[in-house]
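Input (RNA binding protein):
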Amino acid sequence: MGPPLQMVKKTSTEETKAEKTPKKSAVVYIGHLPKDFVEVQMRKFFEQFGTIKHLRLSRSKKTGGSKHYGFVEFETPEVAEIVANTMNNYILFGQKLVCEVMKPADIHEDIWKGENKRFVRVANEPKMHELTKDTLGPSLESRILYNKKIQEKLDEMGIAYDFLKKQIKADEQLLKKIDWEPAPKEDKEKSEPKEKPVVKRTLKKAEAQ
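Output:
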């Protein structure tokens, strides 16, 4: 038998190399995502914290709709911890997020399967023969108002996101193109019945007494 093995202390050079060696990435689970907060919005939002290696939103296989939870892999575990601590219980568009760093043992090997798959929204879209001036106008106006509210919230949070601005501009141009205007609202003063002069005189007499 040879001589017994001895513990060898790391030199300062080896310790420095170990410190410079990049640590493994980490995955954050994000639950209770808002309805229209999908891949594009997720990437824009979470890129503020650090470099994203992978991102996947869980979707229904039948409809392609969001299941309201997803996974984001950050380049360093430090960034992942910051995201989990900062965004857990954060109210985003009325939804309280659930964020936590996943343990390596809980990460499935197919977790990123389909992350680059593109989805096109087709549900609840009017058919081509239904796209008349009266059906398209209200739909566009409603979408413009909704997108403006979301854009205001993003601006308040300091998120530079131009996609909605472009969408709003395109919808407004389309509204002008189809020459659609919302129906005028009824004037409340005109719709309310006027008080009879007799009632007014009675009130004046009562006040004088």
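Residues 27-112 form a domain with the Alpha-Beta Plaits fold (CATH 3.30.70.330).
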